[in-house]
Write a structure and sequence with these properties.
Low-confidence stretches of chain A: none
Distance between the termini of chain A: 24 Å
Radius of gyration of chain C: 20 Å
Largest sheet of chain C: 7 strands, mixed
Chains: A alpha/beta (about 180), B alpha/beta (about 250), C alpha/beta (about 350)
CATH class of chain A: Alpha Beta
Helix content of chain A: 25-40%
Oligomer: heterotrimer
Shape of chain A: globular
Order of helices and strands of chain A: EHEEEHEEHHHH
Mean pLDDT of chain C: 97
Number of strands of chain A: 6
CATH topology of chain A: Pyruvate-ferredoxin Oxidoreductase, domain 3
Strand order of the largest sheet of chain C: 3-2-4-5-7-6-13
Helix content of chain C: 40-55%
Strand content of chain C: 15-25%
Mean pLDDT of chain A: 94
Order of helices and strands of chain C: EHEHEHEHEHEHEHEEHEEHEEHEHEH
CATH topology of the largest domain in chain C: Rossmann fold
Strand content of chain A: 15-25%
Shape of chain C: globular
Number of helices of chain A: 6
CATH superfamily of the largest domain in chain C: Thiamin diphosphate (ThDP)-binding fold, Pyr/PP domains
Low-confidence stretches of chain C: none
Strand order of the largest sheet of chain A: 2-3-1-4-5-6
Number of strands of chain C: 15
Largest sheet of chain A: 6 strands, mixed
Distance between the termini of chain C: 50 Å
Structural class of chain A: alpha/beta
Radius of gyration of chain A: 15 Å
Structural class of chain C: alpha/beta
């Protein structure tokens, strides 16, 4: 399968690191090489958060993704910080509810998904991140549907297993955007 | 002929290095007698500090560990947590316990570590030749307070038993002296109790022994005992500061 | 087969320590290693072990000294500024011939520095982890899997040679998640007749001590220790080589940086530049002979670190007079494969 280097970025509390973990677990389930590297900083809540995720079939060198194949951005500062770094030919998936920018790069594909609004409308509050993962899945097919299901089951903590269905619905919703 | 007095079996035959007239010798004997009478030599581990008693490991027959300066309560914590069945004590001076090791002292106390601390307070750094200690009295002349301890510069002495007795983790804190035979007998009782508390799993027990340092005080041994009674005991009153099991809590 | 688990490097270190038989962990919070403490606090009570939060790094390392004296497998972890505080205790532990494992998840310095990944404590770990004539075993894993494996080795070699061992990583390795399969390996815990655990009337007293007032005694003991170090230098050196056989340009890097350099080497090879990587896994003992051998027929040698250049000193000593170039980023900045590739290309043009 294709090597995937992704950057996910937004505010702390938007589930950026969680969304990255879902991608990483997809790789684990499919027995691929995987790395997940979070930003870490002094802000526990409300600050910026991002993570680098790599899926590959060869051992992974640098887990820090400098030129992502895929960027998922969930706020303006993250969009501004990473949009120029996207590898030519890569894609950016932006939450257009929260990001008012329009990209003028012609060498990448940019998908505007009103994920936060969709999540609110569809009773999936807090799952805008997973809607964007759904869109990424549709665009890149980075893992099988079965792997995604298993990955979500692994990522959702035992005390919140009732949220698995909502996560899977969010994936489907994202896929169809 | 009847034997009326002998060295406890829990002291080695090594010759003590302490200065003539120093009270460390008496306190070592009292600790060794407590270990002997409780029959715990085989399960006891002592922690020697940095200071005059740095070589205490040569004098006690139980297993011994020599700790970095001030860290004896942390080392004792590690020993006791690793082998709760052992009896662990530290033997520390005032600089070790109440200056460089204050954090380790306070936190082992507040955690309620089930250890025994023998604290020798002679108001001076002995090993390094007589500098100001955290317990040096106001006005007391030392090598580093040559004009007397000026509290506007060097601050005030630390009263360890009073301070520690405010902590919920402390089981027992008593201040004793070894300047007279009755006081030595009382100190023997307190030290034994501090070990018995550990055997009974009652928790952190400290005995502060107000002591002399004739060499660095510049006095004869007898004069030093007089100086202790006149100057130290008023500042460091003897007595039980806390005995939780006996219902004696800090006011 | 054992399960492949996705885990942070910090968590893998903690889990591996428990599996290696460590039941006494003494910690103090500091970014970016705190997950180790959190993991231990959660897991130790479930295996009958102890997690104790000390009042300081100073206290934590001395609790390790106490527990090691009692003869149990014990560990502490910290990050750069906290390791500075532990150096006193580490020196005493080395001087008392006690085994233990210390983890350093480095961050930028000096001072409070930053909290991002760094390798600026190489000198500290390999040459000055406290006062006096002594060494620690220093392991520098570069993957989460290797971090887990190394814990077992660190404990066993620390006990074998009665000395402290350090697992030396950085914020990137500590924070990143990778799949890890824990080795199915029974811990080999050795007998410790020297321990201060109570003589039970069966022997004379054991004394754990680093004080020797007679210079002759101290010199003899230090020399004995250095004889052990000589054995270690002969038998315990570890390193990994990648495409060094025909390399014109030899790169030397360890830990997280080695991963980045490896990416750059692959990239350079695809451009027809014969680059190769030698990755020291033990920083002490240092693989000097292996580096000298790998550098025998190369045209250039480049050392890459997340520092201003510290390991490069040892690389220069290893290759005796040959030119060794250096590239580093510091302060918490992780070099990119592209930056390293640019350095390789420049050397290739030289």
């Amino acid at each position: 399968m294709k090597t995937l280097n992704a950057v996910l970025a937004g505010f702390g509390g938007q589930g950026i690191l969680f969304a990255g973990k879902v991608i990483a677990y997809c790789g684990l389930v499919e027995e691929r090489q995987v790395s997940w590297l979070p930003s870490y900083g002094p802000e526990m809540r409300g600050g910026t958060a991002n993570c680098s995720v790599c899926l590959a079939d060869e051992p992974i060198g640098s887990p820090l993704v400098v030129q992502p194949d895929v960027l998922i951005a969930m706020n303006n500062p993250s969009y501004d910080k990473f949009i120029d770094a996207v590898r030519p030919g890569g894609i950016a998936i932006v939450d257009s509810t929260l990001i008012d920018r329009k990209c003028d790069r012609e060498d990448i594909a940019v998908h505007y998904v009103p994920a936060t609004r969709l999540a609110d409308e569809q009773n999936l509050k807090g799952l805008a991140n997973i809607i964007l993962i759904g869109k990424m899945l549709a665009e890149t097919e980075f893992a099988s549907a079965d792997a995604v299901e298993k990955a979500i089951a692994k990522c959702v903590p035992p005390s919140k297993q009732h949220l698995i269905d909502a996560n899977l619905r969010a994936i489907e919703l994202g896929k169809n955007q | 002929m009847a034997t009326v007095f002998q060295k406890p079996s829990t002291l080695t035959d090594a010759k003590l290095h302490y200065c003539p007239g120093c009270t460390h010798g008496i306190i070592h004997r009292l600790v060794a007698e407590a270990i002997e009478s409780l029959g715990i030599d085989g399960i006891t581990v002592g922690v020697a500090p940095v200071g005059c008693s740095v070589m205490a490991y040569d004098y006690f027959t139980c297993d011994m560990v020599q700790a970095p300066h001030g860290r004896a309560p942390a080392v004792a914590t590690g020993l006791k947590r690793a082998r709760p069945e052992n009896i662990v004590f530290t033997y520390q001076g005032d600089g070790d316990l109440a200056a460089i090791g204050t954090a380790e002292t306070v936190h082992s106390a507040t955690r309620g570590e089930n250890i025994t601390i023998i604290f020798v307070n002679n108001a001076i750094y002995g090993m390094t030749g007589g500098q100001m200690a955290p317990t040096t009295l106001p006005g007391q002349v030392t090598q580093t307070t040559p004009y007397g301890r000026d509290t506007s510069i060097a601050g005030f002495p630390v009263r360890v038993c009073e301070m520690l007795s405010t902590l919920d983790g402390v089981e027992y804190a008593e201040r004793v002296s070894v300047d007279t035979v009755p006081n030595i007998n009382n100190a023997a009782r307190a030290i034994k109790k501090a070990f018995q508390n550990q055997i009974d799993k009652k928790g952190f027990s400290i005995v502060e022994v107000v002591s002399t340092c004739p060499t660095n005080w510049g006095l004869t041994p007898v004069e030093a005992l007089g100086w202790l009674r006149e100057n130290m005991l008023p500042y460091y009153p003897l007595g039980v500061y806390k005995d939780r099991s006996a219902g004696k809590e800090t006011k | 087969m054992a399960e492949r688990i996705l885990m942070k490097g910090n968590e893998a270190l903690a889990e591996a320590a428990i599996r290696a038989g460590c039941r006494h962990f003494f910690g103090y919070p500091i970014t970016p290693q705190t997950e180790i403490s959190a993991y231990m606090a959660k897991k130790m009570p479930k295996v009958g072990g102890l997690y104790l939060q000390a009042e300081s790094e100073v206290a934590a390392i001395n609790m390790v000294l106490g527990a090691a004296s009692a003869g149990v497998r014990t560990m502490t972890s910290s990050s750069s500024p906290g390791i500075s505080l532990k150096t006193e205790g580490i020196s005493y532990i080395a001087g008392s011939d006690l085994p233990c494992v210390i983890i350093d998840i480095q961050r930028g310095g000096p001072g409070l520095g930053g909290i991002q990944p760094s390798q600026a404590d190489y000198w500290q770990a390999t040459k000055a982890t406290g006062h006096g004539d002594f060494q620690l075993l220093v392991f520098a894993p570069s993957t989460v899997q290797e971090m887990a494996n190394t814990v077992f080795d660190a404990f066993e070699l620390a006990e074998k040679y009665r000395m402290p061992a350090m697992i030396f990583a950085d914020g990137m390795l500590g924070q990143m998640m990778e799949p890890v399969t824990f080795p199915e390996r029974e811990p080999e815990i050795s007998e410790k007749p020297w321990a201060a655990d109570g003589h039970k009337g069966q022997r004379t007293h054991n004394i754990i001590n680093s004080l020797y007032l007679q210079p002759q005694d101290l010199e003899r003991l230090v020399r004995e220790r250095f004889e052990r170090y000589d054995v270690i230098k002969k038998t315990e050196v570890r390193y990994d080589e990648f495409m060094t056989e025909d390399a014109d340009i030899l790169l030397v890097a360890y830990g997280a940086t080695a991963r980045i350099v490896k990416s750059a080497v692959v990239e350079a090879r695809s451009k027809g530049i014969k680059a190769g990587l030698l990755r020291p896994i033990t920083l002490w003992p240092f693989p000097s002979e292996a580096i000298a051998a790998a550098a025998a027929n190369t045209k250039a040698i480049l050392c890459v670190e997340m520092s201003m250049g510290q390991m490069v000193d040892d690389v220069r000593l290893a290759v005796g007079g040959k030119q060794v170039d250096f590239f580093g980023r510091t302060g918490g900045i992780i070099p990119t494969p592209a930056e390293v590739l640019a350095q390789i290309e420049e050397l290739a043009r030289r």
